[in-house]
Amino acid sequence: MAGGMLLGFLLRAKQRIVSGNEKLITYAIYLLLFMMGVSIGSNEQIMNSLSTLGIVALIVSMGAIIGSILTGFLVFKLFFKND
Amino acid sequence: MKGSLTILSFFTLGLIVGRYTPVNDWLSSVDYSSLSLYLLMFLVGISIGSDTRSLQALKSMNLKILLIPLATIIGTAIGVWFISIFVSRYSIKELMAVGAGYGYYSLSSIIIRNSHSDALGVVALLSNVIREIITLLLAPLMAIYFGKVAPICSGGATSMDTTLPIISRASGKEYAIPSLIHGIILTILVPFIVTLILSI
Questions:
Q1: N or C: which end of chain B has fewer CB within 10 A?
Q2: CA distance A19 to B29
Q3: Amino acid B51: pLDDT
Q4: Across the interface, do A38 and B146 touch by the CB < 8 Å criterion?
Q5: pTM above 0.90, yes or no
Q6: How confident is the model at residue A26 (pLDDT cuts 50, 70, 90)?
């Protein structure tokens, strides 16, 4: 990733390459998630527990969001409010 | 929101193909996943490095802004630690790794799947998509009740792109640059923190 960042910095003036790269990332992500789906879809055990996994996911997101909202609130109160 | 729905439909399409066709048996003989992950990380690196907005933002930076990503990291850890009491299926370490995706669902789910398991990869994908969607829906309320920094922290890594428009509307234009910097920092940190947590 660090190598990519350096290369991206050097290529920053070449907007065509940069926007081509953004598209490439999008397609790479689509492909990888499709593959992930294929592998999981063929896994009987995971397919049977999909709803449980979804509930765990929801609980984790709630915890993560509420926790970060509260620390965000604290930082805002202490450091940003008087700006 | 459109982006995360597209991602989910590709994933769902994959689920259907994997469930009802033997495609996976042909694929499982090739180890494409680690290689493609490195390639993806490289491409993401190019995209961050070439983003001229980040350089401009850095020039106008006030060190105070760095407190926001710190708040997100600490807040997420505390929140996930708290909810881990209610989840018996996964250890606190595993849940922390999911939380450390900070909304960056594509990369974090792929990393977790590679270095841990398919099932936890699914949890990471869903959990981080939910984080993005909730932020998109509730950012205005968060800004009203919990201050203008709260929607940025809730958005996590997505505060540099998908949730940036709603954050700058909810918190005001002066929070657009802090939001951008926050997102960039977390995006860079996600692969490191997730890998670190899983390797402990």
A1: C
A2: 34
A3: 74
A4: no
A5: no
A6: confident
Cα–Cα nearest to B71, from B148, B166, B177, B168: B148
Nearest CA in chain B to A51: B123
Count Cβ neighbours within 10 Å for each residue of A5-32 and write b for 16 or more, e otherwise.
bebbbebbeeeeebeebeeebeebbbeb
Q: Which pair of tokens denotes residue B105?
A: 């669902």
Q: What is the pLDDT of residues A38-48, one digit of tens each?
A: 877 877 777 88
| DSSP letter assigned to residue A11 | T
Contact status, residue B120 vs residue B97, Cβ threshold 8 Å? yes
**Over residues A53-75, mean pLDDT:** 96
Q: Is the pLDDT of residue B58 over 90?
A: no
C-alpha distance from B199 to closest chain A C-alpha (Å) = 19
Residue B62 CA to residue B66 CA, distance in Å, equals 8
Q: Which of B19, B67, B79 sits opposite A68 (nearest CB)?
A: B79
Which of B14, B80, B127 lies closest to A37 in CB terms? B14
Please report which confidence band the pLDDT of residue B59 belongs to, taking 50, 70 and 90 as the band edges.
Answer: low
Interchain CB distance below 8 Å, B10 and A39: no
Contact: B150, A73; criterion CB under 8 Å:
yes
Q: Could you read off the pLDDT of B103-123 as tens digits, one per residue?
A: 998 889 989 998 899 899 999
- Three-class SS of residue A49? coil
Task: Quote the minimal CA–CA distance from B168 to chain A in Å.
Answer: 15
Average pLDDT, chain A: 82
